[in-house]
Amino acid sequence: MAIDKDRKELPLTRLGIERATQQERLLYGATVEQLRKAKRLTQTQLEEMSGVTSRTIRNIESGAKAGQADKLIRLFIALDVDLDGEQRAEVEQYLAILAPLIRSIHPDHRLAAVNALIPDLTDAVRRHPAPSKSEPASLDAHRASRVRGRRQDDLSSVRLDAEVLAASTDDTAIDPERGG
């Protein structure tokens, strides 16, 4: 039962997984298996969703090998575990502010306004990159290949598409007093 106690103390965050020792990473296997079974997924389905091979998943779940941090992160993302916690909540707050502002712009001018905003955001990303660089760029391709119909809540996979935003049909002004 000591293993169950140790497993409950494992942090399910990117940083926690990245900093975990090999022995701690062995304990994550039971959590992966439990989550996979709770979602009624086969190891093959989880492979398709995460890009981690079925053989590796089998080794991680059985405790035969400690999963590498990047593979564990991929598995937990595919299993819809929120590894970002507070960071996600903060980003969602910003999106909640930006979406009504964009919708309050006249539809004929939305695309131009969003296109003007994107370079500023891109410059901010270059000047102040996110602290964690553990997730490989190829994970976006794995996310894109997830099983159809699944909800993708991972905000790091959200892409700002100026044309889609500009085509929004919601013209509700955020401040009716100011108009929109």
Describe the structure.
The protein is mainly α. Helices cover 58% and strands 0% of the residues. It is elongated, with a radius of gyration of 20 Å. Mean pLDDT is 75; it is low at 133-158 and 172-180.
Which helices and strands occur, and which strands form pairs?
Layout lengths: L1 H7 L5 H6 L2 H17 L4 H8 L3 H9 L6 H10 L7 H18 L6 H18 L11 H6 L17 H5 L14
Helix pairs in contact: 3-5, 3-6, 4-6
Précis, in short:
This protein is mainly α. It is built from 10 helices and no strands.
Structural descriptors:
mainly alpha; disordered C terminus; 10 helices; 58% helix; 180 residues
Shape: elongated
Number of helices: 10
Question: In sequence order, what are the helices and strands, one letter per element?
Answer: HHHHHHHHHH
Number of strands: 0
The main pleated sheet reads as:
none
Question: Which spans of ≥5 residues are poorly predicted at pLDDT below 50?
Answer: 133-158, 172-180
What Rg is obtained from the alpha carbons, in whole angstroms?
20 Å
Rounded mean pLDDT is 75
Instruction: Give the proportion of residues in helices.
Output: 55-70%
Class derived from helix and strand content = mainly alpha
Distance between the termini: 61 Å
Estimate what percentage of residues fall within beta strands: under 5%
